[in-house]
Amino acid sequence: MEQQNHDAHADLSPRTKVVALGRPERTPGASLNPPVTFTSTYVQDGPVNYARVANPTWTPFEEAVGELEGGRALLFSSGMAAVQAVLALVPTGGVVVAPAAAYNGVVVSLTEAERDGRLSVRWVDVTDEAAVTDAVAGADLLWLESPTNPLLEVADVPGLARAAHAAGTLVAVDNTFATPLLQRPLEDGADVVVHSATKYLAGHSDVILGLTVTADDEVGRGLHDRMARHRTLGGAIAGPMEAWLALRGLRTLSLRLERACANAADLADRLRTHPRISRVRYPGWGAIVSVEVAGDGDGAAEAEALTAGTHVWSPSTSLGGVESQLERRRRQPGEPEAVPVNLVRLSVGVEDVEDLWADLRGALDSLG
Ligand code: PLP
């Protein structure tokens, strides 16, 4: 049945897929949505014995995201749990090439793993293709995030994946900011895609979840099996209610993203004209905009005041929800020093753009 579903949906637009995938078999009287299975165990002699290995509530969400990314997904308890499953693929003493300014949980994990002698890291500017090409020689893993959080640097994923593969290096891409509706790294040559499903995929700031997705080929299947084993033994599994909520959230991904991206493009233009904004970072797509706030000194105090001065925008960490959020990133411990102290990351939501602008402009104007 699963295979039939995949075939039936293969030619549909991703906008339709987010609505249609992961549904129960269409039989008279069947429910439209999958049920939530709360169980820790199963009656013996079935395909699975214990719910740390699998839960039928994970499956529709995994199938939907796998199909959207063009591979096979594994659901984890958080984005960081998915990250750790990928890092566990690196052998002890191995080498990882990673962006100098990526999501701070990844940077801190790699820094501590290097300090503990587990692996070594070559930090790179992911926009410098020659530097990344040099760095991947002899490396085990190229970790990419594109766009990066929060500097919004965009990597040439196909070019870097080619360079990495020529060196025999595995390629992982954190696709959290782009989502499979804007970028499909497996098609660009990546071996593993990682998501914090906490963000756009679930989309309502009410769950913490993560995913890995690997290609449905021999290499991909090997990676999938190793990460599934890591999940079972590490135990970083999703609760069934969270998995169900994430699938429910996924239904509106296309609508949410369409509005949020349009709002972001509009706000990036308006922000460029404000005298209190010294720099707007926006790659021209996506729904995250980072701004640098001009101040008397380094601008950090003014950036804090901006985040404290809004009413519609929520001053909170995280991103990708329907609600607009903003945060001065350097207030987070472990945030890389490459991130300017006056940088505020705006996660643009789906509200009316005029309300979002009026709120931001009001807070910026009141900085004086
Ligand atoms: N990757 C990126 C790009 C993120 O922004 C985050 C969280 O902010 C993560 C991974 C980690 O995800 P989670 O918070 O779901 O563990």
Descriptive report:
β8 and β9 form a beta hairpin. α3 packs across α10 (240-250). Helices cover 38% and strands 16% of the residues. It is an alpha/beta fold. The longest helix has 20 residues, at 253-272. The model has no long low-confidence stretch (mean pLDDT 97). It has 13 helices and twelve strands. The strands form two sheets. A seven-stranded mixed beta sheet has the order 1-7-6-5-4-2-3, sandwiched between helices.
Keywords:
globular; 13 helices; seven-stranded mixed β-sheet; alpha/beta; binds pyridoxal-5'-phosphate; single chain; 12 strands; five-stranded mixed β-sheet; 368 residues
Q: Name the shape in a single word.
A: globular
Number of helices: 13
User: Percent helix among the residues?
Assistant: 25-40%
Number of strands: 12
Read across the widest sheet, the strand sequence of neighbours is 1-7-6-5-4-2-3
Bound molecules: pyridoxal-5'-phosphate
How much strand? 15-25%
Distance between the termini: 63 Å
- SSE-based structural type: alpha/beta
